[in-house]
Amino acid sequence: MIRKLDMENLTYAFPEVAFSEDYVIATYQAKVQTSHIEKLAMAIAAEQTTGTWIKVGADSLEKTKRFGSKLVALYEVPDIGCDYNSDEPPIYIIQVAYPMENFSTSMSAIETILFGNISASGMIRLIDVAFPKKFIEKFQGPKFGVEGMREVLGVKDRPLLNAMIKPNIGWTPDEGAELFYRACKGGVDVIKDDELMLADGPFCPLEERVSKFMAMEKKVYEETGEHSLYAVNISDSTDKVKENAYRALEAGGNCLMVNVYTTGHDTLKMLADDPNINVPILAHVNFAGTMAASTYTGIAAPLMIGKLTRLAGADFQINGHPFGKFPVSHKVFYRCFKFFTQPWWNIKPMMYACSGGTTQMAVEKIIKEVGTDVMLAAGGGVHGHPNGSEEGAKSMRQAIDAALQGIPVTEYAKDHVELARMLAFLNPDLKKNFDLML
User: Could you tell me which residue ranges the Ribulose bisphosphate carboxylase large subunit C-terminal domain spans (predicted)?
Assistant: First the structure.
């Protein structure tokens, strides 16, 4: 017979005890009004392993010891004392240790174990996970990452420049190839499909657009000496994604893009782990907001789009920033960047592609925040130039040069007409500064 105290002690441990063993430590946030938070926290821990809401016959002390989780930390924010006088429920930070034996290298299994049923509670948010080194070593992560991307493109020390084809959809392979040529001739390093572009739609077939884009890549290199990548969207139903990848590579493709949060992290991992797919992979962030935008539920953005997507093998990923059109805070931006890039044993850093209203005016601000190991993803900032995509790309490269030299962009524009035209277009009040040029 198992005493109540024995069972409770099996699901409770000091953090240092769990860290000394083979456990994955998940950190949750819960906002709930209860006087029995420890029982609730242990119930959360049990639900994700061997526990059930009613005792079942096949349960045993041995199973709980081997496969059961442990509640290793429980904190209130604020840490309530006798002087607390509020009806507002406190926020609890709960850390649960899961035996590494429960996991596989399947991203689906990892996410289910960490946040499966309890995600439906409506009161819990998964904010971080600490994986043991011996577990992380089972993963390859990005094939290229930050340094590999720089090596492929031959760009050593400046931010990379990305532009998506605009408009988002509706263009033919010939129209897209012309935009590719103009943008890359002007200085764009990476062209990507929009996430709305079908992998192989009737209006813009996959092989045709890849082959025509790559012909333009060769032409630009012959004219400028600069290589460029085309991140072709291969997102599709699960059974077609790898086939699309192979077809893109056979047509000469040199980069792939996948909508990770609709196709799944295991789809990304399948591509990254395939030895026959030896090109950089772009993870697109669309749909992530359904899981990472809430304050009290879902998964924290740095964990989901940073740590988990990097673990699955993306080389670079589109994400927002505070200086564009999406409400991304400085905190989220900076923490996501760190989760993309900070040292993580054998897992290479993943490049952050700053997207969503990235204009020439935002370049200096982004570089000041996170440095030069970023990609600047500018669609309108390139294709929206009054004189077309080539001058738009030149103006973005000029804004990058200005930031690297520590010269305000409005000053640098006085000697660079492409940049001056775009700044005047973005902010008509600046036009008077460049009247003699324009």
Answer: 145-423
Q: What is the pLDDT of residues 307-334, one digit of tens each?
A: 999 999 999 999 999 999 888 999 999 9
Q: In terms of DSSP bridges, do strands 374-377 and 229-233 run parallel, antiparallel, or are they unpaired?
A: unpaired
- Of the candidates 309, 360, 359, 354, the one whose C-alpha atom is nearest the C-alpha of residue 330 is 354
Selection from 183, 176, 225, 227 nearest residue 204 by Cα: 176
Q: Half-sphere exposure of 358 toward its Cβ, with a 13 Å CA cutoff?
A: 31
Query: Quick check: helix, strand or coil at residue 197?
Result: coil
User: How confident is residue 54, by pLDDT bands cut at 50, 70 and 90?
Assistant: low
- Please give the share of the chain, as a percent, with pLDDT higher than 90: 78
136-188 pLDDT, tens digit each: 999 999 999 999 999 999 999 999 999 999 999 999 999 999 999 999 999 99
Query: What gap in Å lies between CA 196 and CA 173, rounded to an integer?
Result: 15
For this structure, is 284 an active site residue?
yes
- Which one of the listed residues 143, 265, 284, 307 is annotated catalytic? 284
Judged against a pLDDT cut of 60, whether residue 280 lies above it is answered with yes
CA atoms of 131 and 429, how far apart (whole Å): 52
Closest CA to 99 of 124, 125, 63, 73: 63
163 within 8 A of 375, measured Cβ to Cβ: no
Helix axes 206-224, 238-250, angle to 10 degrees: 40
Burial class (CB in 10 A: 0-12, 13-18, 19+), 337: buried
Q: The dihedral of CA 367, 370, 372, 375: what is its sign?
A: negative
* 45-58 CB burial, b ≥16 within 10 A, e <16: bbbbbbbeeeeeee
- Indicate if the pLDDT at residue 1 is higher than 50: no
- Smallest Cα–Cα separation from 383: which of 392, 374, 394, 396? 392
What tokens appear for 304 in the block? Answer: 């989901």
Beta strands in 32-118 (DSSP E): 70-77, 91-99
CA distance 400 to 398: 5
Threshold 0.90, pTM exceeds = yes
